Amino acid sequence: HQLFVLDLDGSTFYNQTTKHGVFDGQPDQMQRIVGDSRDLIYFTEEGGQAAGVHARDHRGKFYTVLESPDYQDETTGLAFSPDGRFMYVAY
Predict the structure, then answer these.
(1) d(CA 64, CA 61)
(2) How far is CA 79 from the centre of its chain?
(3) Cα 23 to Cα 16: distance, rounded to the nearest angstrom
(4) What is d(CA 21, CA 34) in angstroms, rounded to the nearest whole number?
(5) Cα 56 from Cα 54, distance rounded (Å)
(6) Which of 17, 40, 70, 87 has its CA 20 to 30 A from that of 56?
(7) What H or E segment, with its residue span, contains residue 69?
(8) Residues near 63 by Cβ (< 8 Å), separated by ≥ 6?
(9) Which residues pair with 13 in a beta bridge?
(10) Mean pLDDT of the chain
């Protein structure tokens, strides 16, 4: 239940818990939309009560993008269209 943030320029890293709000699984696949002004890192949730897609901004704030009350296993296949307008995800 940890998210590791790597600073490749500074050769440092830190970790932070992902146990926030409804996120109760473990982070799995991660994606970022290059050039997005919000600068969010999106990640899927493996396991948990309501598996979904979550995001984290550059300040460390977490967001729930979507979740499913019907599927409790894991969220996979996170991808974005080339123009960044559409998100694709599978359960």
Answers:
(1) 10
(2) 11
(3) 13
(4) 26
(5) 7
(6) 70
(7) none
(8) 40, 54, 55, 56, 57
(9) 6
(10) 76
Written as one string, the DSSP assignment of 41-58 is EEEEEESSSS-EEEEE-T
Q: Which amino acid makes up residue 39?
A: D
Tell me if 46 sits within 8 A of 27, measured CB to CB: yes
- 24: nearest Cα among 60, 54, 59, 61: 54
> How many angstroms separate the CA atoms of 89 and 83, rounded?
16
Sole residue written with tokens 């320029």: 9
Residue found under tokens 């991808």:
79
Backbone angles phi, psi at 84, to 5 degrees: 75, 10
Q: Can you give the pTM of this predicted structure?
A: 0.64
pLDDT of residue 78: 86
* Residues 52 and 72: beta-carbon distance below 8 Å: no
pLDDT by residue (tens digit) across 27-54?
667 777 766 777 888 888 776 666 788 8
